[in-house]
Design goal:
Layout: H1 3-32, H2 50-74, H3 77-106, H4 110-134, H5 136-162
Helix pairs in contact: 1-2, 1-3, 2-3, 2-5, 3-4, 4-5
Length: about 160
Amino acid sequence: MKIRNYIQLFFAITLSQSAGLLGTIFTVDAVAVWYPTLVKPALNPPSWVFGPVWTVLYVLMGVASFIIWRIYEESSGAKKRFAGMALILFVFQLGLNAWWSVIFFGQQQLGLALLEIICMWLAIVATMYYFAKLSRTAVWLLVPYVAWVSFASYLNYSLWMLN
């Protein structure tokens, strides 16, 4: 792999991790003060699980976006436009990912966060649809992400209902 590819891979992973970092700004205090006061559903994992899981998911997302980025750069015409749309969808769902933490932890609006996570899940599925047309590897790298967001949606719904 060329040095330029390593730089692009680093950038793609860093961009994904940035969504998590932005979310952390709104999460840290709320996890320490507000979140422990909530009634939790039976399947709620311990708080320490979320950081490592999200870190791994953001790396996988970054690698997936890097693969599509390479396809975009190596293509032309309709395939290039399709790959470009896939990358736009990826950045859009990444923004929704960061925004969920603002709504859930920052604003403590569980119902609104539930609506937002449903939109995020739909955006992830749309991204996966586009990625699947371009690279099986890229779409498979997003499977753990959509699975975790599905679980997070259950947690969000349960927390909303219990509180």
